[in-house]
Amino acid sequence: LGCDLVLVTGAAGQIAYSLLYSIAKGDVFGKDQPLVLLLLDITPMLPVLEGVVMELQDCALPLLREVIPTDKVDVAFKDLDAAILVGSMPRREGMERKDLLKANVAIFKSQGEALDKYAKKTVKVLVVGNPANTNCLIAAKSAPSIPKENFSCLTRLDHNRACFQVALRCGISANSVKNMIIWGNHSSTQYPDIHHCKVNVQGKDVTAFDAVKDDAWLKGEFISTVQQRGAAVIKARKLSSAMSAAKAICDHMRDIWTGTTEGEFFSMGVYSTGNPYGVPEDLIYSFPVSIKDKTWKIVDGLAINDFSRAKMDATAAELVEERDTAVSFLGV
Fold first, then answer.
1. Which residue numbers delimit the Lactate/malate dehydrogenase N-terminal domain (predicted)?
2. Which residue numbers are catalytic?
3. Is the model's pTM score more than 0.85?
4. Which of 73, 65, 267 is nearest to 155 (CA)?
């Protein structure tokens, strides 16, 4: 097997620190797939990055053929098979959302251009850095020679959070909850939808409503808990979710590489144009998807009630506004 070239940006940061070992060990791209890891960060972080490289070397992992730390995009993006874009401008105290968007548009425009210029046209790009949906859209728009379908953003963390909340409520393991959906933006407007969930209780698949037996919780506190979970972690740890974000990144990329099981779907932020759910075109919006041969397909034919429709529309409206603001900075 030839090596897969995998880039992680923001590689000196805390999400990457939780992520790199799992990738290098073979948990994501395959147990026998040799890897070259490219680690990109800003110049002042290079000394820290050297420490990360030393640790990866000291893990003595058989699949890890080479680790290349760099602050140069032409090195980082060359011939990539996968790009995991974790690095972004974090929101500082008192920063306007618009200023945050502007800073990130500059970052993801240049990374999109680098993908366009240097990476394989088959590269799969996962955007994690927030605002992830809009950053992903900007990167995709800045890489016109790479198909839009090759870009996705991370909502698997929200998906995993939602599955666990239902499992906890029912006193079962998290893998007994299948076909959760996160619709929309990776923000507090996201809609965690349990209407199509299958919950395995004592060997039998039932709906989330039948398993939980508390509709008020499912339509209220459950949704707000998942929407606000990131903020709750920051409040408690004084740092954003890293371990759980890294685990979700691994789940997301592994599903792209190995495909999903027949009849099961997961949430990811993908290009909305041509979607069957009346979501506005030209957004990166989280949908339920199934994956085969490294290609995702939005799961079609799911019934959407009025409760769901309103929430799906609200998060879409936020994304349209974010997109329009971000695109206005693209020409600047």
1. 6-151
2. 186
3. yes
4. 267
